[in-house]
Task: inverse folding
């Protein structure tokens, strides 16, 4: 009996918390289909805000800025960061820690401080192109995340394979590309993905670094500051559905892999039993 | 072997130009006046009564948000960690998914809910309470902060709690401790590292945020982050802005040092073991 009451309370609490987290998102999504602009009352179903959103050229250019900056900055940061990690791995510990410490400053610093420091630098260097500014800023705050994902993989891999490849006549460059890089590939991939998502989501640093060129976050902020606008609701719905789909795809894939693994384990166990 | 270290040079050049120089610029503008060294920017920022008020308000709101997140988030993480693994991992994903949504959209959602013609006011009018002024209040800023950062509290605490060795809890129960005592003497101290990183993940962003206070406070309840943003983007006063950023950095460093100190204490307890019991 006590147990039942307890689990009832637990369920209620978790349920209430989930409602707290999801109700605002649900409200946004529901009212994105509302005919009128008022958010309190439902009038009738309409897709007009979606049409308005998709024909909004400012939104479309913000979207393309977000996506291209995310791809380019993640690629460049992955290349620079991976090279740095490999190079740092063969350095003395003190030099390595020094470089690592400086590179990690954007991770430790509040985004606000990183953003304004970029703003001052770009102004003094005379870099006025907003797109270039965004790219440089995003590459910079992405680099430490790539280094921290690649470093542990380098530490796990042994130097012997690299030396063996050299003994067998590989040039250092070839040995690096054929032996070291494939060995640390999982770290490189996770570093790239992390960099990509961080760049997609960034607002604060871009807000100060960008000079008239808006990414999606800046576009949303600009609209939200002017008050309620159902176009933002439509955008929220699209983005939320995109995120959920992406997470589902990743999860289903990993669940399937797990299932395959467990089936295989069962089969080998059965074989062993048969023997 | 020596040749391989040259691979790090592009990165070294990059971080010199784009990390070290900008950080130096903040220090430079904070401590100079027309080229000569001075403490005036810092001291006048510290003595400014408006800035003091904003700073105090930011620290208080960030502190309140952190405490509320901890009080709401810890039970969630604790309940999940004691569930069947399959249900727990599903629920965990549900609690974390909102983190993947752009935080400006999450903040905007509360603009829609709390607004004068918003959904809450429509409900209030329907049941006869009458419309309330909820948006553009300090409470709205606090609510928005809690809403945005709650998952960041659940995440680290849950990760520590599921790794926690359940035999400690069983041993405590076997030795006669009741559930209450077991929690406060065993589970809570052992989960301190998660609590600490949760607190840092909520408190520091909460102090520096300017978008939440702008969107939900309407500029009336300015926080420290918003103040700095104003100095750079509206007043274009780099010296005061840099001085304020410098103060913010010191504040962040102090809170991180305190957190690390507490964290060290608890991990020493763990090693000693004796104090726990």
Result:
């Amino acid at each position: 009996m006590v147990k039942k009451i307890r689990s009832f309370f637990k369920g209620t609490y978790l349920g209430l918390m989930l409602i707290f987290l999801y109700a605002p998102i649900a409200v946004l999504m529901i009212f994105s289909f509302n005919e009128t602009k008022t958010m309190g009352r439902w009038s009738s179903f309409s897709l007009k805000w979606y049409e308005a959103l998709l024909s909004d050229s400012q939104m479309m250019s913000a979207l393309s800025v977000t996506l291209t900056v995310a791809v380019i900055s993640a690629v460049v940061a992955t290349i620079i960061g991976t090279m740095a990690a490999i190079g740092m791995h063969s350095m003395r510990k003190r030099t390595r820690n020094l470089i690592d410490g400086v590179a990690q400053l954007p991770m430790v610093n509040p985004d606000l401080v990183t953003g304004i420091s970029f703003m001052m630098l770009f102004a003094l260097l005379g870099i006025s192109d907003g797109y270039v500014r965004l790219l440089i800023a995003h590459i910079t705050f992405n680099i430490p995340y790539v280094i921290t994902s690649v470093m542990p993989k380098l530490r796990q891999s042994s130097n012997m394979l690299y030396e063996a490849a050299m003994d067998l006549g590989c040039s250092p460059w070839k040995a690096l590309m054929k032996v070291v890089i494939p060995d640390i590939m999982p770290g490189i991939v996770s570093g790239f993905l992390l960099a990509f998502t961080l760049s997609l989501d960034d607002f604060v640093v871009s807000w100060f670094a960008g000079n008239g060129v808006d990414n999606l976050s800046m576009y949303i902020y600009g609209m939200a500051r002017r008050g309620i606008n159902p176009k933002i609701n439509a955008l929220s719905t699209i983005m939320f559905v995109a995120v959920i789909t992406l997470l589902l795809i990743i999860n289903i894939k990993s669940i399937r892999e797990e299932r395959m693994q467990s089936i295989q384990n069962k089969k080998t166990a059965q074989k062993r039993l048969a023997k | 072997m020596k040749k391989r270290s040259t691979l790090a040079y592009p990165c070294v050049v990059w971080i010199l130009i784009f990390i070290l120089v900008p950080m130096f610029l903040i220090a430079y503008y904070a401590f100079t006046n027309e080229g000569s060294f001075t403490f005036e920017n810092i001291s006048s920022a510290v003595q400014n009564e408006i800035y003091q008020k904003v700073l105090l308000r930011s620290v208080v709101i960030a502190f309140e948000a952190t405490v509320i997140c901890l009080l709401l988030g810890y039970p969630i993480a604790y309940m999940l960690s004691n569930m069947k693994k399959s249900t727990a991992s599903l629920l965990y994903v549900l609690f974390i998914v909102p983190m993947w949504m752009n935080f400006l959209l999450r903040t905007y959602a509360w603009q829609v809910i709390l607004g004068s013609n918003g959904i809450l006011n429509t409900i209030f009018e329907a049941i006869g309470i009458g419309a309330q002024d909820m948006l553009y209040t300090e409470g709205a800023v606090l609510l928005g902060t809690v809403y945005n950062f709650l998952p960041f509290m659940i995440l680290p605490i849950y990760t520590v709690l599921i790794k926690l060795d359940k035999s400690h809890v069983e041993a405590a129960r076997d030795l006669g401790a009741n559930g209450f005592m077991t929690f406060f003497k065993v589970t809570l101290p052992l989960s301190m590292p998660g609590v600490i990183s949760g607190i840092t993940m909520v408190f520091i962003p909460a102090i520096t945020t300017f978008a939440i206070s702008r969107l939900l406070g309407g500029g009336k309840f300015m926080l420290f982050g918003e103040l700095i943003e104003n100095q750079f983007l509206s007043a274009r006063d780099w010296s005061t802005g840099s001085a304020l950023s410098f103060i913010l950095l010191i504040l962040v460093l102090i809170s991180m040092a305190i957190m690390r100190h507490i964290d060290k204490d608890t991990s020493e307890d763990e090693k000693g073991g004796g104090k726990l019991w």
Q: What stands out?
A: Residues 80 and 88 of chain B are 5 Å apart (CA to CA). Strands of chain B lie at 32-33, 36-37. DSSP finds 13 helices and two strands in chain B.
